[in-house]
Each structure stands twice: as C-alpha cells, then as structure tokens.
UniProtKB/TrEMBL annotation, chain A:
It is found in: Cell membrane. This is Urea transport system permease protein. InterPro entries: ABC_transp_permease (IPR001851), ABC_transptr_urea_perm_UrtC (IPR017778), LivM-like (IPR043428). It comes from Roseospira visakhapatnamensis. GO terms for molecular function: branched-chain amino acid transmembrane transporter activity. GO terms for cellular component: plasma membrane. The keyword Membrane applies. It is a multi-pass membrane protein. PANTHER family: HIGH-AFFINITY BRANCHED-CHAIN AMINO ACID TRANSPORT SYSTEM PERMEASE, SLR1201 PROTEIN. Pfam families: BPD_transp_2 (PF02653).
UniProtKB/TrEMBL annotation, chain B:
SUPFAM superfamilies: P-loop containing nucleoside triphosphate hydrolases (SSF52540). It comes from the Bacteria. Gene3D superfamilies: P-loop containing nucleotide triphosphate hydrolases. PROSITE patterns: ABC_TRANSPORTER_2 (PS50893). This is Urea transport system ATP-binding protein. The keyword DNA damage does not apply. Keywords: ATP-binding, Nucleotide-binding, Transport. The keyword ATP-binding applies. GO terms for cellular component: plasma membrane. The lineage of its organism: Bacteria, Pseudomonadati, Pseudomonadota, Alphaproteobacteria, Rhodospirillales.
Amino acid sequence: MSLRALDRRSWVFLGLLFIIVVAVPLANLATAPGSWAHLPSFAVSLFGKYLCYALLAVALDLVWGYCGILSLGHGAFFALGGYAMGMHLMREIGPRGVYGDPVLPDFMVFLNWDHLPWFWHGFDMFWFALAMTMIVPGVLAFVFGWLAFRSRVTGVYLSIITQALTYALMLAFFRNEMGFGGNNGLTDFKDVLGFDLQSDATRAGLFVLSGLALALGFILCRVIVTSKAGKVLVAVRDAESRTRFLGYRVESYKLFVFTVSAMLAGLAGALYTPQVGIINPSEFSPANSIEIVIMVALGGRGTLVGAALGAIVVGAANTLLTGWFPDFWLFVLGGLFVAVTLFMPRGILGVFDRGGPVRPGAPAGLALRRKEA
Amino acid sequence: MSPGPAPRATSALLYLDGVSKSFDGFRAINGLSFIVEPGELHAVIGPNGAGKTTMMDIVTGKTKPDEGTVLWDGRVDLAQIDEAGSARLGIGRKFQKPTVFETHSVEDNLLLALNADRGVFATLFATLSAAQATRIDDLLALVRLEDRRHTLAGGLSHGQKQWLEIGMLLAQDPKLLLVDEPAAGMTDDETMRTAQLLRDIAGDHAVVVVEHDMAFVQALDCCVTVLHQGTVLADGSLAHVSAVPAVIDVYLGR
C-alpha cells in the first residue's frame, strides 16, 4: 500500500532527504575541523531544527492543504511535544543540577517546592515521555476538534479559535505555578538516554532521527492522502456540504486528520527540544504558528513535499536574516506571505507545475475557504 | 402519529403531513402535506419563495421542521436525522448549482459517491473492487461521460456537470432522488436529454424534480405539485394543474 502511495516526486524528495541525512553528519564527523568540507557542529543542530520544522509543516499541510482546516495554532502541538521531551531531559539531569536535588529539577527547588507535581511522574522513563510527546498533543487535538468540528466551526472562525488556543497555552505556560518552568521554560539539559547532548555524535544522531521522522511522517501523510479517505478529505476541502450529502460524516474525517497531524507536530517538537537545548513558552506564540502557515503556503499547499521545502527555505531565511538584519525579519516574513499569495498562489512547487495539467487533488488557490453552494 | 420501529404508518416512501417551518417569523413552509410513492417521478413547481428548497432541506435533514410529520418509508422520522443520515437512508439530493468535486476526476467523483462503508478507517484501507469498477463504467455510460473519465470535474461543461452529479446520486443507489432545477442553464438539447435521463431513472428510484422550465416539466410527463407560500396549491397532471384558476393567478398567469 505504501509503495503505491509514493509518486515520482515523493521518491525524489525521499532521495534528496536520504542524501542530506547521510551527508550532513559525515561532513561533520568524518572531516577534520578546518578542512574545506567540514561542517561545524552548530550547523548540524541547526539543520536538524529545519527538519523538525519540515515535519511540522508537513503535518500542517495534511490538515490545511488537503482538508481545508487552516490551523493557526499548530505551534501549540509542536510545543507540547517539545515540553514532554523537555520534561524527560530535565528528569535525566538528576542530581547534576545546580542545586543537586536528586529528583526535583532546578526551577522547582528554586520555587521551594518539596515534591514533584503529579504530572511530572513517569517522565523519568524515556518510553513514557516519547509516548506523551504524541499522546498529549493528540488528546488535545481530539478534544478541541471534537468540540469545534461537531459544532461546525469552519473557515476563519476555526482559525481564530486555534490561534486563541495557542495563545491561552502560552499565557498558562508563562506562569510558574503551572510547573513547567515559567518563562524560562526547561533548559540546561545534560544528556538523553545516556548520550551527552553536547557531543557531536549525539547531535548527528538526533539529526538522523529527525530526517527519519520526517521521512516516516511524510510517507504516513502520503498514504493517507492517496487513499480513498484522502479523496474524501479533498472533497471536504472543496465542497464540505456536498460531502455530507454523500453520506460522509465530515467531522469524523476532520477529527481524524487533525489528531494525526497534531501527533506528528508533537513528534517534531520532541526532536526539536534536544537539538536547540531549550523549550520555553515563546514556542506557543501565535507568530510561530503563523510562520508555519507561511512555510506551507510558500512551498505549495496540498503537496506535502512543498511544505517540507517551504519550511527549510523559511527556516534558512530566518537564520540568515535575523543574523544580518535582526529588525527586518518580520517584515520579510510578512512580505513573503503577501508575495506568495499574489504571485505564486500554488507556491514554489506550483511554479514547476505551471503549464502542465492541474494535479488531481491540488487546491485551486490560497483562498482560506471556498464558497459553498 | 408517532414514528416507531413498529408497523409502517403509510405505504408512501416519503410522507409529509402538516409540516411548518418559520425563519425569523417568515413562514417558509406552512402546513405542507406531500406524498411520494416508491418509483414515482414527481415534479414540484412554484414561484420563488414558495418553499421548494426549504421542503428539500427538511427532507434531507438540513433543516428541522417546527411542526408536522416527516416520515421516511413509513417508519423513520426524518426530523431526527442529519444530512449524512438521510443520505445513508437512501435519499440523494442534487443541488441547483452543480456541486461536483472540481479538483477530482470524473471517475473519482463517482467513486466517492458509490455505496460503500463511509467510515474513516474503512475508506483509509479501501481498495477498488471489480464490482465497483464495473459499476463506475456503467454509470459513466448512463450519464454519457465515458470519454471524460479522467477529466477533472472542474473542466466539464455546465450540462456535463449536472449529469455527473446525477450519476453521483445514482451511484448511491438511492430510493429517492431530489433534483433541484436540473435544466437551469442548459441548452434545449441538453434539457431534453436530461428529461429523458430522469425518466429512465424513475421506476427503479423515486424522483422528485423541482423545476421552473415548463417545457422540461412537459417532457417529464408526470404528476405535478404546485407550491405557493409554503402550501400545496394544486396537484395532478400538468394539463390539470394548468387549468386550476389559483395556479394561473400566482404562477402561470401574468
């Protein structure tokens, strides 16, 4: 089933991804510092971060590009996954923290807490934390989606409440009483599964895992969108009410992809945290979620490959521009969105398709929601 | 009359009695009674605002009636059912504007409409069976779109979209087809071919057609119900209702 789901473009994408996943760690580990081919260690983590964003963008494209659900709060699922992994990394510090408490993370000692809050239990086990990186976003998406889709909240109204969701979570996570480190978040990680997070080998390992997660997430999304269920999703996107009259329970389909998408976003967040070394409430900021939407729009909505491409382009542009002209990044990002909407409504991949036949299932344009009969 | 699972209350396929529905004080439907027998071809005419669309909305579960009885197959209370539920019961609805899935091929449009498990996990692992492939071929032949099989539905002409949508309704093998102004915007030739198509379909399926075009209704050659201000003004053959003075006043006359 999964082989049939991959078209030529998918294989090209997976092939390129494979080359990157092999080449980047090699250029870091197998070359001497100072040699022309040497890639500095920080770059490996940086590229790994882009791969996490790419997985996040692919997850968003699944719901937005194929089902028309414009989530402006996908950063929340990403951040929750990141926090779940961060909690494990905090527990793994053990007695090596500044205050040397064998159980309590530093920020809890600092707040004079004498025991671990109940929701921190179990996170000392890696498998439990890893499961939670997907279960927590999945459950949140399921409950949120169940309420929203059943009430037939669609279009911009849904986008606004997803934005409110991530904003509310940001405010909540800023509070020290929440037990997630307040505005400092979780940081100062030492190692994961015994591997030193500062070592080049661990960084390379995390990079490879990010590439693998992106590949698997991509294949999962391809399997979904090329199945009959995927055709139903596109039908929902283009004519929701018509789909209902065909006998499909539209809310079940939306709930399914929204939950799957949130779980993939959570996994992306889980890989992100150890590579950047910190997770804090700013990851919940609405601007982050909007940036993901721009990534998908830039690459080409409803293509999956485009979403990953857009994430890498926007991520790289972010890194370079915030380095060169820190004050201008948001203007560039906003300008990019306007330019894409006006001149490349089908994104970077749409430019390649120009002149050719419209690909079945490809969205007609960037309109948030098409008029229904 | 309470609709229970017990013996059928009526032999009619669709039974509306004393149905009313108001929107912000405007009575779109007012004590409407209307019956469709299995396999019957039935035309509904009436001026704009006569309540034709609201009637269809009530039958398909999109709108809940304020009062009255809406019975399906003598057993099921349609007031308790949503759109997907009505489709699953065997009520197919064709909208006035052709609403096909424009970014899907003609073939995929029919595939989505075919009778099959509509659940998420069923469709996720669904494969096309030989019987389904044959059914799609038959439907393409019936609605004369064999050579457009792989065309995106968005690229079809207006008339072809209407036929595709009728094909999609037939794919669900409905007991009742509700067809809203199929001839609107069609050429004369397409109109006559559409009337012929609907007459071919009737018998196996009950068909209710809402229409303005008198030539088309004439070509359907069936029982006609005239609606006005949410109630039935007259019914019978087109010749019969055309002679009723009240009908001439509100609709046919000028």
